[in-house]
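Researcher: We're teaching a course module on how sequence relates to structure. For the next exercise, students receive a sequence and then see the predicted structure as tokens, so they can try to spot secondary structure elements on their own. Here is the exercise chain.
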Amino acid sequence: MSESSPQLFPTFDDPLSFKRAVISSIIRRFTTGSGIYQTAIEGLNLVRNDTPTDTLYSVYKPTLCLVVQGRKEVRLFGERYVYDPLNYLVISVTLPLAGKVIEASPDVPYLGALLDIDPAQISQLIADSSPVGVPSNGDVRGLYLGSTDGPLLDALFRLLSLLDSPEDISQLAPMALREIFYRLLRGQQGQRLYEIAVVDSQSYRVTRAIEWLNNNFAEPMRIDELAKYVNLGVSTLHHRFKAVTSMSPLQYQKQLRLHEARRLVLSQSTDIATVASQVGYESQSQFSREYSRLFGTSPLRDRARLRRSG
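Model: And here is the predicted structure for the students to work with:
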């Protein structure tokens, strides 16, 4: 098979391994070293790491994470999820996460694809495909693992193959993306995507609360006002919010503040008191305690460590 001219998959003794190998070869050609690479296909990024990584803290938007080589773990408020070539990861709502690549080497790098998930696109797919026959297991957590099967790999291959024919992207990429998201909806965890896309479901209203918190995390929060904003009772919001994110709204807001604070601490020379104030803390000592509890070191030591390593 020519690297520059991908073909349809032939019959193979281990078809899933073969498909992953072909997809890996495409990702290798469009990545030159460790990093995240934007592509000509909107919402698609390729990922490569030649070595395991330190823990990185970030707020993730809704995303599908597909791995074809290597392993990675993410942590959500004490919960641990490991994904690899056999399992994809879906982040269905915006979440503050800690993640690191745990299996990678120069000869066998970590390779994967990240696809943005647009709830409006999922909603349209549901409307067009109804009844879509979405499975339900009763869980609504906004982070979950699913089994990577042949049809999903086929759709990913068709999408990545378009990188070799940019003139076809505008017409064919939407169809490949639509198939990928359709496969997610039909997967065993499909209800979790379905819930966030159906207007007026309780999970959809929790998503609106999450959006509000992300846009206003530095502001004081009153749970009764947030509940009124999303049209849920206070106890219902608290219960459903924790079911989706594993955190209460107040804990979620604190995570957002600390993630943004770390970004500011490591990217700017602003004094720590100013950083604390910018993310909504009135007490610098409380800020430093909570920062150290989450990240394992004080803001000043964290900044000093970065400067030494740089």
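Model: If you want an answer key for the exercise: The radius of gyration is 21 Å. The chain has a mean pLDDT of 90.
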